[in-house]
Amino acid sequence: MRCHTCAAPANVEIRRSRIAFCARCYPTWFRSRVQERIDHDRMFRREDRVLVAVSGGKDSLALWHALTRLGYRADGVYIRLGIGGYSRRSQEKCERFAEQHGLTLHQVDLEENEGFVVPDLRDARSGKPCAACGTVKRYHFNRVAADLGYEVVATGHNLDDEAATLFGNLVHWNVDYLGRQGPVLESTHPGLVRKVKPLYRLGERETAAYAIIERIDYILEECPMARGAKSLAYKAMLNSLEEQQPGTKYGFLVGFLKQGRAALPGAGADRAAGLRSCVRCGQPTTAEVCAYCRLAERGRRKRARSGSAAPDRLSRSGRAGPGPGAGRDAPHPGPDGGGGPRPAVVEPPARPSPSG
Amino acid sequence: MRCHTCAAPANVEIRRSRIAFCARCYPTWFRSRVQERIDHDRMFRREDRVLVAVSGGKDSLALWHALTRLGYRADGVYIRLGIGGYSRRSQEKCERFAEQHGLTLHQVDLEENEGFVVPDLRDARSGKPCAACGTVKRYHFNRVAADLGYEVVATGHNLDDEAATLFGNLVHWNVDYLGRQGPVLESTHPGLVRKVKPLYRLGERETAAYAIIERIDYILEECPMARGAKSLAYKAMLNSLEEQQPGTKYGFLVGFLKQGRAALPGAGADRAAGLRSCVRCGQPTTAEVCAYCRLAERGRRKRARSGSAAPDRLSRSGRAGPGPGAGRDAPHPGPDGGGGPRPAVVEPPARPSPSG
Predict the structure, then answer these.
(1) Alpha-carbon gap: B184 to the closest alpha carbon of chain A (Å)
(2) Domain residue extents for chain A
């Protein structure tokens, strides 16, 4: 095949579209796809400050790279989850990427600031902390963005991720989740920052190709906690279908967004009804104590029982003021007047301007 | 494992329910499941005459057998599709089953009565006639039932079939089909007989076990035209998930019926709006000429070009009266007053009472 742009021999094939690109033209095409989605789905505007949630993997770093190259003001946030060597290596990848490109990376350290790590959140039945880890990450991404005044949180979810999530939600008919699955999750509360997924129509192979061609140094290993996760089984199934019918994943996801989702309740928005402030942390929640605070409590108890150190959180729990990284007023403070303690944000020493 | 009923060593395990049965108790459990679905989903009543669509395979013969044993007045209908040796062998299985159990089997012979066979309906793109074959079968099942005064058509679709169909409709987001997928398709027109699927919560392995234990002689081979069909790929995928998480197929289908389908338009009914009579055959349709008549026309043309004999239909095309099997007035006759020609029904010599 020949490059769709310059007719040179092609290096990357986009099977579902029956086009291909050489390594020189591919990144431009990839970024044009990202730009097209940002514009078409009204994810954010030129002047918005974007917080990119990075994990050290190819997708989130490719997204951060592409947004920066497209001229957006995009900073990163990394959560130190405390998953042993995997977490250390992925943290290094994020720090190195930020340093190389002169970008700002915020960090939240669960162990130091919250008194637990993700392995403390293992589910009793499945033995996996994946669902809890998702809650923890979403909580901190949102909180850091709200505290530091970002207009939007961007995550690196790609087509494969989204199709697998959709499939999982369909297999279990989580109608509530289905209604909220989409590339843009609008804010329905001042404390909930809107979330966007600019890569949601680009496949895993396509973000990998972008990362490789742009020489992004990312972590190749999968999270060791996710081994045997259902989402990986769903991905494998969808990949086998994709082999037989290129375009299946794309049609499945985009068909859902265009046809299926409209029929479901609460499409495309965080729940707005009945939101109040968590009595512990002040974040918006539908319960008295938010899901994150309940998880964190469980994690700290687990950690205390297992005899590991949980030094910081316990000494911080009485503190009412905003953490060192808070850039604007606490969102929706509760009746206790303080909004509760907030996770520390480890700030980089200085904030250089994006490399363009 | 031990039999759930009598504690003897078990022969058949129902993994998703974590129960098992010995070969002696299993058929009773199987039929109780069928009865429970008939009652719970109000499929038909004791006094209704049921037409079972049989193919010679395990599911439809198991259904016919179970309904008869449960005391229902259930006759069979078999469509001679003209798929070479496969069709001949499956016809033999149906005829032998009817004979052994003293049951009435109606037959429609496509080649003789309609002037084409299913292989004439191969799709130009996929090379497969499966979609067209489905239309042909549904048409004749409905027509025979309407003509002969049956209250309901019962098909042998099992959990695996239904889950695979659901999956296929979700992958392509056929919202219209999704809304109408269910165990009961109500009649919305006098010419459309209600359709039910009493086995829809029983897995393929469970109907196979029933057929084997009850010594039902069924055709083992898959239809040769279906080789490589997408539905088989979907079944394989769902089976691999089921291996990992027993109950996945059941949860997927039943979750859809309980949660997902309600959100979709036209749930559980044949389209009622804008139905009129096909100008050729008189059957209810939304178009001037119904989908079946267009398919049949295409099949006859194909057959004429290939030089095969299509003796009967051409000489029958001017006939306006009902065929030899018509048991009640033609459904919803069109403005031409006749309702058009109807497919012949090959009647069995006599109608013995069910074996009970």
Answers:
(1) 20
(2) 30-219+242-346
